Amino acid sequence: MALQLAKHRDQYQQAFDAVLDSAWLVNGPQLAAFEQEWASVSGAKYAIGVGSGFDALLLCLKVYGLGPGDRVGVPAHTCPATAMAVLATGATIVPIDVDRQSGNMDLKALEMVLCEQVLQAVIVVNLYGRAADWINILDVLDHYPNIKIIEDNAQGQGVWSDRVPGGQVGSGNYAISATSFYPTKNIGALGEAGAITTSDPALAERLRSLRDYGNGADRFVSTEQGGNYRLDELQAAFLRVTLLGLVEFNQQKIKVTQRLNHALEGLAACYGNTQPDLIQLPLTHDDGNGHLFVIRTTKRAELQQHLTAQGIQTMIHYPCPTHLQPVLAHLGYQAGDFLEAEAWAAECLSLPSHPMLSDQELDRIINGLDSFWAMHSNLLA
């Protein structure tokens, strides 16, 4: 992160100075320009900048009037923010199990839920920067025209799904997409930020109202219950800088993940006969953006400790499935209810994959995995 900030330091400073010189700090020209630029990149007609990715999801739910008494399908393995946005509206969260290979929403699990209960909305996540199975999911949801479809594209900036850019699902009949610009995203702000994209002019108008206290044409006359979900001028200006480098950033990310994946394939070929499930390779997509490089391992704690000892930092995205979050205990779900999501939560491990990793740093990661796999294979020999 520090290297990325240093790379664009002068541009960020210029953006900061431009905002200060304008003395326009909220709802000004930087926001308007960024919204236009992000809409263009996303393939949508409109973008609405908001204060965070959580705000984006929350407003997507609110603009559809979802709340108490409504049921919203959410992947059982995802960032907690997805479910917390639903919880904040008072609607009921309905977990849907995920695919064993990708971690994204499982098509058969979705079909099963739809057969058993009525949903008012489904949030589909592009997890880890990999597009969900959009073509087949939309084919299924076409049979349920009353269900609202929300794309959670917080990790998918620049992702393509069957030649449709991430975020553009919300530019056709499927009306809305939310994203996060948290600093570690492929397009990161220098703080909290998010956005919603849509090609529906009525939705865009209402979203702008909801983010600003429900104000209508008259700034101080609220036409509906809104709140303060605004994206400030500074973050909009910083995001305009970061957005310019999105294509290059994603390309570099993908090169890093390809090298890591190629190395893991070699290790699997070397050690797979003795420990085939010790480290499971991530599912790769040509249409992904390389946001996170997530492996699965049956010995996660041991592997983390092994890599930490060699100065290699790892993270877990995410250690607790949706249905087992303590705050959702009132829903009554138990361990064993969503087996694939629980397996992901127990085994997933994110390896370093920043695009500015040096060859030496990548070699250290690969050698760390090699020594761990070799050690466990020798134990079985």
Structure report:
The protein is 42% helix and 13% strand. It folds into two domains: 243 residues, Type I PLP-dependent aspartate aminotransferase-like (Major domain) (Aspartate Aminotransferase, domain 2), CATH 3.40.640; 97 residues, Aspartate Aminotransferase, domain 1 (Alpha-Beta Complex), CATH 3.90.1150. α3 packs parallel to α9. The chain starts with a helix and ends with a helix. It has a seven-stranded mixed β-sheet with strand order 1-9-8-5-4-2-3, sandwiched between helices. Strands 10-11-12 form a three-stranded antiparallel β-sheet. A two-stranded antiparallel ribbon has the order 6-7. By secondary structure, it is of the alpha/beta class.
Strand order of the largest sheet: 1-9-8-5-4-2-3
Uncertain parts = none
Percent of sequence in beta strands: 5-15%
CATH architecture designation of the largest domain: 3-Layer(aba) Sandwich
- Structural class of the helices, strands and pairings? alpha/beta
Shape: globular
* CATH overall fold name of the largest domain: Aspartate Aminotransferase, domain 2
According to CATH, what is the class of the largest domain? Alpha Beta
| H and E string | HHHEHEHEHEHEEEEEHHHEEHHEH
Q: How many strands, which pairing sense, and closed or not: the largest β-sheet? A: 7 strands, mixed
Radius of gyration: 21 Å
Indicate the percent of residues in helices.
Answer: 40-55%
Number of domains: 2
Count the strands? Answer: 12
Q: Let me know the average pLDDT.
A: 91
Distance between the termini: 42 Å
Q: Total number of helical segments?
A: 13
CATH H-level homologous superfamily name of the largest domain: Type I PLP-dependent aspartate aminotransferase-like (Major domain)
Oligomer: single chain
